[in-house]
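Lecture notes, continued. The same structure-token format from the folding unit now serves as the input rather than the output. Read the line below as a description of shape only.
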């Protein structure tokens, strides 16, 4: 198959034991030694960020969790980047690029005289080496291998030129989303597939990982060799808080300088706090309800415990029609979310399914009841639908610690009862949710993803060939969805070089997915953030008009930050000194046989890139 970007993590299972071990042991492999840094950072130039993000490693070849991936965007420049203004493709290591008329040969010109953070020259050879390692070695293709599967060869005619020849044309720029690493460092690592890369990284981005110690600390240090210019702060430090309310108190007291992922209640509680500036950003995430359509692997071998009633499209459509999404958004999200159509957020206006598309429908109890009638589910004496002597009873799997998920479940239960479905909320811890969804042991569950500017990847993980098996081996699937007509549309948009025609194909694919209803997209949540205005200023949003600061597709959010004026940024506002805090903790990996890592491959939706 040539259209295989969706097979991004297809080799995950094979290297499970090694990756799990990477998170549990130290010293698996050793990078070339770097000079020790003894000079303490100026506290007024240390940005302290609250987090609860999951970390498996800082290896850009293997990790795809949100916090490490965000760190990679600051540590390693891509061949091309995504702009702060609107997330469209912009210069990165390359200053210009073009493609032949067939869309198969892409040529990139890199800026001259760039240096890695250790002062070694950065050339096209580093780009080719990175790509070729991913193309040739399974253990280095775990996180991003699908991005190079359409590569035929990568050549470097000179130190400033990269030529990528594709097997088949593709519409999206192949230089995106792949962190380029230094050959002179990584070529000397004995086992790069299990290398943790957890201290003194060498990279090209604005910040480099200085140190990481499980359950203690994460520190990113400014890179003076960054081609856009050295950052105006010295360090980024993360602090881990298992309780989100504690994060709110920490920014109130000045223990941290930045916080994101606030709930509506927390955001409202913090508005107006002294020296705290808030931001309501139009984010790149969607959240919704994944419905088990009868999950199977790529060879159509079914598995799991999903209710067979959900194989019927009309039943899934009835569930959508029975949910008053507008009320849910206003009550649960307190309107801090944008109305949704598909899994491509409205922040990417060009690609998102238009709200006036004929397939888009709203809350309609009568329609839901009619659909269930047509599916053969008749109302019983207690109001619950019956068919062949069985009640229509479904399980809704949620994270017990997620307020939004629990509040959503409270609304869904009576709404489903109104149309004749008995819904049981099965709240559990995130590891159990991850394990059960991997095995297909659910009827419905609360889900969410972060979406990149080009829709190709997210479309790809909705194709039939992308479905993993019950152990999580194989591809990565958004909802276990499979429709051959959708697959045709995916392949067509993948190779369509005319943007207007491609946009239409993407909309057709999204409309097909909407009609089939393997999930119900509830909303595009606003990213609710806050920072200490007495400590720092200059945060850059993406997009610049109403966008987000954290979790960007790029390194804009923190690389432009600078200390507030001296009389406001003394560091005395209740925060601890740079060396006196307990840092980020790593979520424990439960190892059962060889499957420990898979228990965390879905984690909570906020952890997943």
């Amino acid at each position: 198959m040539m259209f295989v970007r969706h097979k991004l993590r297809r080799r995950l299972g094979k290297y499970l034991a090694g990756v799990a071990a990477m998170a549990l042991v130290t010293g698996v492999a050793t990078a070339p030694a770097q000079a020790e840094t003894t000079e303490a950072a100026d506290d007024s130039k240390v940005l302290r960020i609250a987090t609860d993000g999951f970390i498996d490693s800082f290896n850009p070849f293997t990790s795809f969790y949100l916090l490490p991936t965000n760190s990679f965007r600051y540590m390693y420049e891509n061949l091309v980047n995504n702009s702060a203004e609107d997330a469209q493709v912009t210069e990165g290591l390359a200053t210009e690029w073009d493609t032949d008329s067939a869309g198969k040969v892409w040529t990139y010109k890199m800026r001259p005289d760039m240096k890695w953070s250790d002062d070694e020259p950065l050339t096209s050879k580093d780009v080719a080496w990175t790509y070729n390692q991913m193309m040739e070695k399974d253990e280095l293709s775990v996180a991003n291998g699908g991005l190079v599967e359409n590569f035929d060869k990568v050549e470097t005619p000179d130190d400033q030129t990269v030529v990528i020849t594709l097997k088949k044309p593709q519409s999206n720029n192949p230089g995106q989303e792949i962190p380029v690493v230094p050959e002179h460092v990584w070529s000397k690592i004995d086992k790069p597939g299990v290398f943790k890369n957890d201290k003194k990284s060498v990279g090209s981005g604005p910040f480099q990982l200085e140190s990481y110690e499980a359950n203690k600390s994460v520190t990113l240090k400014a890179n003076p060799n960054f081609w856009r210019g050295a950052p105006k702060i010295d360090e980024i430090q993360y602090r881990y808080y298992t309780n989100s309310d504690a994060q709110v108190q920490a920014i109130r007291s000045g223990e941290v300088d930045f916080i994101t992922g606030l709930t509506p209640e927390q955001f409202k509680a913090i508005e107006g706090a002294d020296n705290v500036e808030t931001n309501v950003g139009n984010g790149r995430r969607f959240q919704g309800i994944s419905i088990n359509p009868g999950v199977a692997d790529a060879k159509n071998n079914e598995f799991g415990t999903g209710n067979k009633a959900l194989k019927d499209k009309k039943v899934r459509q009835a569930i959508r029609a029975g949910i008053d999404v507008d009320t849910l958004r206003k009550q649960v999200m307190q309107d801090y979310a944008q109305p949704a159509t598909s899994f491509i957020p409205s922040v990417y206006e060009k690609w998102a399914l238009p709200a006036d598309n004929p397939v888009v429908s709203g809350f309609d109890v009568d329609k839901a009841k009619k659909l269930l009638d047509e599916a053969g589910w008749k109302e019983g004496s207690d109001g619950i639908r019956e068919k062949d002597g069985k009640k229509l009873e479904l399980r809704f799997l949620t994270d017990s610690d997620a307020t939004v998920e629990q509040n959503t479940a409270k609304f869904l239960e009576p709404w489903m009862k109104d149309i004749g479905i008995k819904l049981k909320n099965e709240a559990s811890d995130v590891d159990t949710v991850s394990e059960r969804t991997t095995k297909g042991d659910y009827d419905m569950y609360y889900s969410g993803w972060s979406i990149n500017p080009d829709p190709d990847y997210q479309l790809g993980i909705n194709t039939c060939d992308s479905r993993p098996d019950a152990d999580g081996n194989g591809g990565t699937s958004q909802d276990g969805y499979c429709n051959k007509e959708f697959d045709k549309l995916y392949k067509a948009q993948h190779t369509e070089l005319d943007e207007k025609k491609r946009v239409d194909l993407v909309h057709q694919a999204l409309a097909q997915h909407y009609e089939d209803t393997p999930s119900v997209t509830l909303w595009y949540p606003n990213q609710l953030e806050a920072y200490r205005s007495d400590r720092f200023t200059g945060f850059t949003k993406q997009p610049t008009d109403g966008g987000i600061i954290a979790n960007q597709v790029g390194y804009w959010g923190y690389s432009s930050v600078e200390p507030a004026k001296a009389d406001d940024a003394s560091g005395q506002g209740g925060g601890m000194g740079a060396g006196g805090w307990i840092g980020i903790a790593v979520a424990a990996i439960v190892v059962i046989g060889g499957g420990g890592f898979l228990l965390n491959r879905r984690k909570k939706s906020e952890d997943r890139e």
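Point for the exam: Residues 540 and 556 are 6 Å apart (CA to CA).
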